[in-house]
Design a protein that fits this description.
With 287 residues, the protein is an alpha/beta fold. The chain is built from 10 helices and 9 strands. It has one domain (12-274). Strands 1-5-9-8-3 form a 5-stranded mixed β-sheet. A hairpin with a 4-residue loop joins strand 8 and strand 9. The protein is globular.
């Protein structure tokens, strides 16, 4: 992925090394962070919905996070994140302008070990997540190591896909999609809530694809192998693949994000169309 000469976003907040107070209940997490919570629930034998809805509070002990990095060691990763975020800002600002709307860019918060957000406190194990309550994306850069070693998804464009997916949730929030889905979920039972969640997540994958298409049109960011990296990352975080890895079998009725094939399909759909309107997963007959 060509990114080294790109503009860096000013909307990166670096909280690595900050002290964290005692935590509170985690709620309102969207994106790959939700995948991680579900994964944790499976490993502990806990219904993931308990972790995310009005269940027992998840407490994180008070910690004082000390920077383990020497000055400059992580500067390259931080710059990469800032450039990718800037690319999303350029693409979505133009897309919103074409629709007569203004795009308010999210803030991306870098943290280490644990972080406090408007959605509650979360540890690194939760993974990257978007909090609609404060319009911020939270990312511990160590997740990129996990993405490569645990999920088998390597490459800088795989990492860019993760960021673009979370930004996709921000776009859904600005467009009012998230609010409508939350209202619908409050009116239905658990099976229907999960189905709505799947459509929400697949739409974020599609929006990530739209971003990649438009960014490449504008700045030629894609290199040979990048698309394969992104598709591999989308496949790696599919519900069926995670379930098979954690419990040895697949339970489609428990899906919250979609299968690997579905995630790949919608990311590819956005990547090939480059059109926000093509990402209407809520009216699609086939996911």
């Amino acid at each position: 992925m060509r990114w080294r000469d790109g503009r860096e976003s000013d909307n990166v907040e670096d909280r690595r090394g900050m002290s964290i107070p005692r935590g509170a209940k985690i709620g309102g997490i969207t994106g790959l962070g939700f995948v991680a919570v579900v994964l944790i629930g499976m490993l502990l034998g806990i219904d993931p919905t308990v972790l995310l809805q009005g269940g027992p509070e998840i407490q994180t002990p008070s910690v004082s996070v000390q920077r383990s990095e020497r000055p400059g060691v992580n500067d390259d990763q931080r710059k990469f994140v800032a450039v990718v975020l800037a690319e999303t800002e350029d693409v979505w600002r133009e897309a919103f302008r074409e629709r007569g709307r203004s795009y308010q860019a999210p803030t991306l918060v870098l943290f280490s070990r644990a972080v406090e957000s408007a959605c509650g406190m979360a540890g690194s194990a939760v993974g990257p997540f978007y909090c609609a309550s404060d319009h911020k994306i939270y990312l511990d850069l160590s997740f990129f190591d996990d993405l490569r070693m645990r999920f088998g998804a390597s490459g800088d464009f795989a990492q860019a896909y993760v960021i673009a997916h979370e930004v996709g949730h921000h776009v859904q929030t600005l467009l009012g999609i998230s609010k409508k889905v939350n209202e619908l979920q409050a009116q239905v039972g658990s099976p229907e809530r999960k189905k709505l969640s799947v459509r929400m997540e697949l739409q974020a994958d599609c929006l990530a694809g739209v971003w990649a298409h438009q960014a490449d049109q504008s700045h030629r960011i894609l290199e040979a192998g990048d698309i394969e990296e992104g598709l591999n990352a989308a496949s790696a975080v599919g519900d069926d693949r995670i379930q098979r890895k954690t419990q040895g079998h697949v339970v489609p009725d428990a899906f919250t994000h979609g299968s690997s094939a579905q995630r790949v399909r919608w990311f590819r759909f956005g990547l090939e169309s480059g059109n926000l309107r093509s990402c209407d997963t809520f009216n699609a007959d086939r996911l």
